[in-house]
Structure formats: structure tokens, C-alpha cells
Design goal:
- The complex is a heterodimer of chains A (about 575) and B (about 200).
- With about 575 residues, chain A is mostly helical.
- Chain A is about 60% helix and about 0% strand.
- Chain A contains 14 helices and 2 strands; from the N terminus they run H-H-H-H-H-H-E-E-H-H-H-H-H-H-H-H.
- In chain A, strands 1-2 form a two-stranded antiparallel sheet.
- In chain A, strand 1 and strand 2 form a beta hairpin.
- In chain A, helix 3 runs parallel beside helix 5 and helix 8 runs antiparallel to helix 9.
- The radius of gyration of chain A is 24 Å and the shape is globular.
- Chain B is mainly alpha-helical.
- Chain B has a single domain, classed as Four Helix Bundle (Hemerythrin (Met), subunit A), CATH 1.20.120.
- Chain B contains 6 helices and no strands.
- Chain B is elongated and about 60 Å long.
- Classes of the chains: A mainly alpha (about 575), B mainly alpha (about 200).
- The structure holds protoporphyrin IX containing FE and copper (II) ion (CU).
- The site of protoporphyrin IX containing FE has 21 residues of chain A, from helix 7, helix 9, helix 10 and helix 12.
Chain lengths: ~575, ~200
């Protein structure tokens, strides 16, 4: 009865059955864990695909089941899985769901049912994505950017019939799920903050997720529209993107379509998408650095403004991915300038992290190590972005491994470090037990050193002109004799780093099952989620009374305080 | 719904219902979607000589249906609880008629030999109207769910004297949001129509 409900308080009943409690749950924490596990599972599929690619690149000709066609399919699926179905889903669906209600002090999302629906629709999109491996022709091999015409013309690329259609369908479903989630996250942050939790008292994790959700809401429609038009081109012979094409002397019945139009739509989504991924990771890392360095975050306000600025400018730089596609030189100039400008707020954030660490009392546990790793890879990756933002430097570098190195360090590795750090940090709260620090540190060091060994040499390969998205470099070995050796080296490290991720899986499973019981607030952190009455928090989070907030989230090591941290719930006078 | 039951003592803005905020956000998403599509339309037309499209007169009639549908829902949300159910049903019925009218417009186009893949103008016309129609269908789902509340309250009211819904009652809010969504879709439709008229 929707009419009277608004006046009753405390009316929710804890669901009792197994199904309503763990499967079709509307509890944001359960949904968060469902999102996280699903995303990690698809992530491992993506990792496995990267192994197959590396095997081919390191040992060409040794693995007969890899051919140019399925190499491109592995590459495409790897990229799409990692960017969309792992990083976006885990950061918004996983961390967003877990952290927003707990950190702003509410009992659940604004629309719990919609929230549950969002997860199940995400699962459908994942199933559609993976189904492409089993249809005739297999998944699409057109690259994660799906550029027409080769993505939809028959035989122009692998999976150009059913593969691409399934992928577009899956993306459309993902957009629906992401929109439901985004509406929920934004509404919850704006409407359901507890007493005293002003916007400028929100932890930076919430800020990052909040702004990224707005970006997702505004950027996904471009992908959706581009995808639908591409689908029609594929299924019904329309010419949205397909120009006049002659195949073996025969003219296909297409006319006037413009492939560049698709690139604009794709990157109008694609560039904000990279910030959808990195902003939540930046927020998480800010909180981890402050907590584990026992120091207030440096320049909180500047951090918030930078997040907002990055998001806003992120909508006017998209064509820096298209310098090579050809454009009016004045446009190129504009997009290059905008790209350099967006580096400014990114740099502000980096300085603030470093200044937060300065003279801090660093506790080098696993979450902190990953947060520090993030700062380092983000700096290297970001600096190389500045090369690519220059039209003149980008033209020779665009189709080379330099770009692969850039986006893997700045987006792939950085985001995944933020995610690992966050997972270790909040694991004790979510599960109520501790993971093994020793294993966690081992996991960090192997992954950190390994990531540099894998991706740093790619900058060199790129400078030498080694093209990306190639199945084989036969015939161009003369580029440089070291490239083959480098590729062997990278492949071996990649296999090792991939395998090392099992340490992480084992650590979490073992920790959840056998780990030492966690205290309510093992990191002595200030934010609300550590002040719940029980650990893990119950459905509804707070027991009888909602917490009341009296201060910002970064009161660490205040001079006259009895402890080196003061929870947000402690009133100003005491 | 638990959405409301959880909002006890919170310090933010109870006067703005969460559903209202969520609707605005959704309208921002839908605006982006149609803006992307319409700008793609304008760009794409520039690449083909051929963009003729017959414009069935039926479209004018459909537009009128949608205008009256919007008006009826608006009246329902502002009027008394007693008159609301009838207005609400009329508004919904007009929207259904609009959708049927659009299907007839499609078939007129097809009979004139203009199919989805005939030329860019026809491709975009089918795509735009289909997406617009799907948004309206989604609106009809919300309309149906609201209808039961309206009828229930209307029944209660018809025994007593005719009063307005309490300004903050949840039914009132639902009516307003639904009507607002209708106006948005009307505006989108008018923009589509104008652009198609000007360019083909
Ligand atoms: C300081 C800031 C950055 C600048 C100036 C920058 C600049 C660029 C430029 C110009 C390109 C196009 C290169 C080409 O294709 O030729 C590019 C590619 C890319 N960047 Fe960045 N970037 C920056 C930060 C980031 C961040 C933070 C992320 C992700 C979180 C990211 C993810 C990517 C990805 C995924 C690609 C490659 C897409 C593809 O072609 O498949 N970048 N970047
Ligand atoms: Cu970009």
C-alpha cells in the first residue's frame, strides 16, 4: 500500500528465506557483493583472453589454435570485458552499492527494488556477452571500439554477423542496468544523507562514485544510440555508418553512411567512460591514503573541485582519440588544448595525494600498498597521455604499443589497484574476518612490479613503431631486433602476474572462511561505515538510530585528541 | 515501498520526493539520447543527396492526440480526486491511440515505398519514432500502476464531497510526475517533427 507508507518509520522486515536474503536480496550490501563477484568472474575471463594474446605475441607459430581471426576476437572481448563489464560494473555496482549508503549514513538505496533489478539485468548483459563465444562465427573481432564498416560488413572482420549483434545487445542491456544503478546512486547521495552529513563532509570515495554516476548517466546514451544504429546497419541494411562499398566488384546496396559519425558517438561515450572508471578509483585511493597515512587528506575542497572539473572537461575532449581519422585542423587544435587542460585537475589531485603522504605515519599494509601503487601508475600513465594529447606526437604513436602502454597503466592497472586496495580495505567490514596480510603483500608486490615490467617496455616498442592490434610481426622484424625478445619477456611476466591473481582469490576465500575475526574498526578509520553497531552490518545498517555526523571524514592525528582518529559521529566539543 | 520507510530522520530534503529527483535525472538521460540521435541525423543528412520522405497528414492528427493526452493527464493531476480517474483514463487512452496512429503512419510510408533502409531520412524517421514510442510505452507502464491508485482514491472521494488531493499525498506526486513525463515526450515529439519537416 503505497499511500500510507511514507509516514511509518522502521517498517522494514529483515527477509528470512535463503532466496530473499542472499539471491533476490534488496539489501545494498548483498547486491554489492553480487556485483563484485560477477565482475571478478568475468574479469578472469578477460585475463585468460589476454594470456592467449600474449602467448601468440611471445611465441608466434607455437600455438596453432590461435589464428589471426580468433586473435582479434580475443583482443576485442578482452578490451570490452575489462573496461565495461569488470571495471565499470565493479566500481559503480560493487563499490557504489556497498559504500554509498554506509558512508552517508542511510539504511539503503533510495530504490532498493530498482537496485536489485539493476544487478540482474547486468547479469543478463554478461550472459549475452559470453554467449557470443558460442554462436556461428564467434564474437566480434572488430576491436573494443567496434568501428564500422569492418565491424558489420559480412566477412570484413570475424564475428561480423552474430558476434557484433550479440555484443551490441549486451551493451544495450548493460546501459539499461547502468542507468538504473546511476539513478539510484545519484538520488541516494542527494536525498538520503543522514543528519549532519553535508555534501562537503562526504568521503572522497562517495564523491568519486557520485560524479562518475552522473557521467555514466550522460555518456551511456551516446553508446546506446551508436550501438542501435550499428545494429540496424548490420541487421537491416541501413546506411547510417556504411558508405558506398564495393566487394569484389559488386556494389553493396549502401550509400552515404559515415563511419566517422560512429567514431564521434563512440568516443563521446568512450572518453567519459575512462573517467567513469578512474574517478571512483581516485576517490577510494584518497580515502585509503588518508586513513593509512594517519593524516587528513590534503586539499579536500580542491579534490572535490578537481573531480567535478575532470568530469565536466571530460565531455569536450573526445576527439583526441580521432586525430588520425582526420579532422579540421582547428578542431584538432581545440581538442589538443582541452586535453592538456584536463591534465591540470588530474595533476592537482596527484599533488594532493603526495602532500597527504608527506611526513605521514605510513602504515604499509596491503590496502595502502595498492593505493601507493595507484599513485605511481597514474602518474606514469598520465604523463604519457600528454604525449598523445599532442596532435603531432599522436599521429605516429596512435596505432602503436605506446597507446597500449598508456591506457593500461593509467586506466587498467591504476583502476585495478584502486579496486584491489578497496577490496582489501573493506573486506573486514563486509565479511567480518581478516584476510592474510602476508599473502596480500605478496600479491601486491608481484602485481606491482609485474605490471611495470609488462607495460613499461610497451612505450619503447611504441616509439620504435610497433603497431598495436597485430596478430604477428612477421616481415617487420627488421624494425628492431630487440622487439622479439621484449615480447617474449612481456609474455612470461604476463603469465606470472596473471597466475599471481590466484593468490588474491585464495586470500579472500580463505579469509572469509577461516580468517581471524575482524574488529569493528580494524583500521581505526573515521568514516561512518566503520561505526556500525555490528560487523558485518545488518540489513538496514544502523540498528534503531541513524548515526549523526559532526565533522568531516579526515580527522586523523589531531594535536590534542586522545586518539589519532576521531570518528565522524563524535561531536565537536568532546 | 521500502524507499519511503527508510527515510526517517534524515537531514536532507524530504520536501523533494526521491521519485521526483529520479525522474528529472531520467529526463536528462533521455534528453541526451534524443540529442545524440538528432545531431547524428543532421550530420548524416549532409552526406546524401537523396533524402525525400513523404509526410503523412496523419502525423498532424497524432500530434493532436498527444497534446490532448498530455492536457488530460495534467488536468487529472491538478483537479479533484473525483474527476481524476476519468481524466486519467482518457489521457492514457489518447496515448494508446497516438501509438496506434504512429503505426498507421509507418504503414503509409511503407506503402509509398519508404522502408527502414530506403534513405537516411526514412531510416532516421523509423528509428526516432520507434525510440519515442518505446519511451511512451514505458510511460504507459507507470500510467497503469498509477491508475489503480487514482481509481481507488476517486472511489473513496465520490462518496464524500469533492476535494483536491492533499498537496503532498503520494498519489498526487505520482500523477504530477507521470503528467510531467508526458509533457517531456510531447516536447521531444514536436522537436522531431519540426526537424523532419525542415529537412526532408
Ligand atoms: C592526464 C591525462 C590523460 C591524457 C592527456 C590522455 C590522453 C589520451 C589520448 C590523446 C589518447 C588517444 C591516443 C590514441 O589513440 O592515439 C588516449 C587514449 C586512451 N586513454 Fe588517455 N589520457 C589521459 C588519461 C587517461 C585516463 C585517466 C584514462 C583512464 C582511466 C585513460 C584511458 C585511455 C584509454 C583507454 C585510451 C585508448 C583507447 C583506445 O584507443 O582503445 N587516459 N589518452
Ligand atoms: Cu580520452
Amino acid at each position: 500500500m503505497p499511500h500510507a507508507a511514507s509516514h511509518t518509520t522502521e517498517e522494514h522486515h529483515e527477509p528470512t528465506g535463503f532466496w530473499s536474503r542472499y539471491i533476490f536480496s534488496q539489501d545494498h550490501k548483498v547486491i554489492a557483493i553480487q556485483y563484485t563477484i560477477t565482475a571478478l568472474v568475468v574479469g578472469f575471463v578477460g585475463l585468460f583472453l589476454s594470456w592467449l594474446m600474449r602467448l601468440q605475441l611471445g611465441f608466434p607459430g607455437e600455438f596453432n589454435f590461435i589464428n589471426p581471426n580468433n586473435y582479434l576476437q580475443f583482443m576485442t572481448q578482452h578490451g570490452m570485458i575489462m573496461v565495461v563489464y569488470l571495471l565499470t560494473a565493479i566500481l559503480l555496482g560493487g563499490f557504489g552499492n556497498y559504500l554509498i549508503p554506509l558512508m552517508i549514513g542511510t539504511r539503503d538505496m533510495a530504490f532498493p527494488f530498482l537496485n536489485m533489478l539493476s544487478y540482474w539485468i547486468y547479469l543478463v548483459s554478461v550472459i549475452l556477452l559470453l554467449a557470443a563465444f558460442f554462436v556461428p562465427g564467434g564474437p566480434t573481432g572488430a576491436g573494443w571500439t567496434l568501428y564500422p564498416p569492418q565491424s558489420v560488413l559480412p566477412n570484413a572482420s570475424p564475428g561480423a554477423d552474430w558476434g557484433i549483434r550479440l555484443l551490441i545487445l549486451s551493451l544495450a542491456v548493460f546501459v539499461a542496468s547502468g542507468t538504473m544503478g546511476g539513478l539510484n546512486y545519484v538520488t541516494t547521495v542527494l536525498q538520503l544523507r543522514t543528519r549532519g552529513m553535508t555534501l562537503m563532509r562526504m568521503p572522497l570515495s562517495v564523491w568519486g562514485i557520485f560524479i562518475a554516476s552522473i557521467l555514466a548517466l550522460l555518456a551511456f546514451p551516446a553508446l546506446f544510440v551508436g550501438g542501435v544504429m550499428l545494429l540496424l546497419d548490420s541487421l537491416f541494411g541501413t546506411s547510417f555508418f556504411i558508405p558506398v562499398v564495393n566487394v569484389l566488384g559488386q556494389q553493396l546496396g549502401r550509400e552515404g553512411g559515415n563511419p566517422i559519425l560512429f567514431q564521434h558517438l563512440f568516443w563521446y561515450f568512450g572518453h567519459p567512460e575512462v573517467y567513469i572508471v578512474i574517478l571512483p578509483a581516485m576517490g577510494i585511493v584518497s580515502d585509503l591514503l588518508s586513513t593509512h597515512a594517519r593524516k587528513p587528506i590534503f586539499g579536500y575542497k580542491a579534490m572535490v573541485i578537481s573531480i567535478a572539473a575532470i568530469a565536466a572537461i571530460g565531455f569536450i575532449v573526445w576527439a583526441h582519440h580521432m586525430f588520425v581519422s582526420g579532422m579540421n585542423p582547428y578542431f584538432g587544435f581545440w581538442f589538443a588544448i582541452a586535453t592538456v587542460i584536463i591534465a591540470i585537475p588530474s595533476a592537482v589531485k596527484t599533488y594532493n595525494w603526495l602532500l597527504t603522504l608527506w611526513k605521514g605515519n605510513l602504515h604499509l599494509n596491503t590496502p595502502m600498498l595498492f593505493a601507493l601503487g595507484f599513485v605511481s601508475t597514474f602518474i606514469i600513465g598520465g604523463l604519457t597521455g600528454l604525449f598523445l594529447g599532442n596532435v603531432i606526437a599522436d599521429v605516429p604513436l596512435h596505432d602503436t604499443y605506446f597507446v597500449t602502454g598508456h591506457f593500461h597503466l593509467v586506466m587498467g592497472v591504476s583502476a585495478i589497484f584502486g579496486i584491489f586496495g578497496g577490496l582489501y580495505h573493506w573486506f573486514p567490514k563486509a565479511v567480518g574476518r581478516m584476510y592474510s596480510e602476508a599473502l596480500g603483500k605478496l600479491h601486491f608486490w608481484v602485481t606491482f612490479v609485474g605490471s611495470y615490467l609488462i607495460f613499461f617496455p610497451m612505450f619503447g616498442e611504441g616509439f620504435l613503431g610497433l603497431p598495436r592490434r597485430y596478430f604477428s610481426f612477421k616481415g617487420i622484424e627488421s624494425f628492431s631486433p630487440i622487439i622479439h625478445d621484449l615480447n617474449v619477456f612481456i609474455t612470461i611476466v604476463a603469465l606470472a602476474v596473471g597466475a599471481a591473481q590466484l593468490l588474491f582469490v585464495f586470500n579472500l576465500i580463505w579469509g572469509a572462511w577461516k580468517g581471524r575475526k575482524a574488529e569493528a574498526n580494524p583500521w581505526r578509520a573515521t568514516t561512518l561505515e566503520w561505526q556500525t553497531p555490528t560487523t558485518p552490518p545488518p540489513h538496514g545498517n544502523w540498528g534503531a538510530q541513524l548515526p549523526v555526523v559532526h565533522r568531516w571524514p579526515y580527522d586523523y592525528s589531531l594535536p590534542d585528541a586522545p586518539q589519532d582518529y576521531i570518528p565522524q559521529t563524535t561531536s565537536q566539543r568532546s | 515501498m521500502s524507499a519511503q520507510t527508510f527515510t526517517e530522520a534524515n537531514g536532507s530534503h524530504p520536501e523533494l520526493p526521491a521519485t521526483k529527483l529520479a525522474l528529472w535525472l531520467f529526463l536528462a538521460v533521455a534528453t541526451m539520447l534524443f540529442a545524440m540521435l538528432l545531431s547524428a541525423y543532421l550530420v548524416r543528412l549532409g552526406f546524401s543527396e537523396e533524402h525525400a520522405l513523404p509526410k503523412p497528414n496523419l502525423l498532424w492528427f497524432n500530434t493532436l492526440l498527444l497534446v490532448f493526452s498530455s492536457l488530460a493527464l495534467e488536468r487529472a493531476s491538478r483537479g479533484t480526486a473525483r474527476r481524476a480517474p476519468a481524466l486519467w483514463l482518457v489521457g492514457g487512452a489518447l496515448a494508446v491511440l497516438f501509438l496506434i496512429g504512429q503505426l498507421f503512419a509507418w504503414s503509409e510510408l511503407a506503402q509509398a515505398g519508404y522502408f527502414l533502409a530506403t534513405n537516411p531520412a526514412s531510416s532516421f524517421f523509423y528509428l526516432l519514432t520507434a525510440l519515442h514510442g518505446m519511451h511512451l510505452l514505458g510511460g504507459l507502464v507507470a500510467w497503469t500502476r498509477t491508475a489503480s491508485c487514482v481509481i481507488q482514491e476517486g472511489r473513496g472521494e465520490s462518496r464524500g464531497e469533492a476535494v483536491r488531493f492533499a498537496p503532498a499525498s503520494s498519489t498526487r506526486v505520482k500523477l504530477e510526475l507521470c503528467a510531467f513525463y508526458w509533457h517531456f515526450l510531447l516536447a521531444v515529439w514536436v522537436v522531431i517533427l519540426i526537424l523532419v519537416w525542415m529537412t526532408t
